[in-house]
Amino acid sequence: MLILQSPLTRKLSAFVALSDVDLETLARFHRRRRSFLAKHELIHEGQKNQTAFILAEGWACSYKMLSDGGRQIVDFQVPGDFLGLRSVLFRTTDHSVEAVTRIEASEVLASDILDGFANAPRLATAVLWAASRDEAMVVAHLVNLGRRSAEERVAHFMLELGARLKLVGIGDKTGFDCPLTQYHLADALGLSAVHVNRVLRHLREEGLLTFQQGRVYFDDFAGLVALACFDTDYLDQDGPLLR
Q1: pLDDT value at position 217?
Q2: Domain-by-domain residue ranges, the chain?
Q3: Beta-bridge partner residues of 75
Q4: CATH code of the domain made up of 2-131
Q5: Distances (CA, A) of 208 to 60, 131, 155, 156, 217
Q6: Which pTM was predicted?
Q7: In the prediction, which pLDDT does 94 show?
Q8: Domain 132-235 is in which class?
Q9: Which residues of the chain have pLDDT under 70?
């Protein structure tokens, strides 16, 4: 089954051993596959009756716009992530989602999700786990913004991205391909692009991390973990709990 190679299947399998019924339901979620160019806005804050998407290829970001034209990136989405899952449940969408790169994503209607969960309750539990994991990451990002130094923020954020990508088979302890610019990182980490550049240079000079030519290299993985006090427990991806 092609659905076994889906990044979402790999991700949810970290929590629950998926049954044939679960896999058939996931396959239906992927029926409406679409392509979007970089910078395309898939979801706009304030929209009503918005659909969600499952990201299969490429990167996206969710964000809030400020009255002065500034932007706070809430998170980046990678293959296997839902885009705008809250949008199918809330009456009005509370955030925007934009493609960072060219992406492939499957459109999922509210009826798809509700019908699917009725027929595959174990899958519903797995998606609830994924949503809870996203909430845990938001908590980690709040700590980043409020209490960690600039170096610790960048280190923690890069390690988290690496762990998320490793889960879906496109990253490891040596590093990962990363299409983000220093402006993306600045909008996510509450820093200026100049400050991000300075921090990345410092981490490289310390032999901890190198970010160049679209790839992040973990030069000293253990040292980076120690700097960021990074603990993967909040990502909860050590193996299925439900079989």
Answers
A1: 98
A2: 2-131, 132-235
A3: 62
A4: 2.60.120.10
A5: 26, 31, 9, 12, 9
A6: 0.92
A7: 87
A8: mainly alpha
A9: 1, 239-243
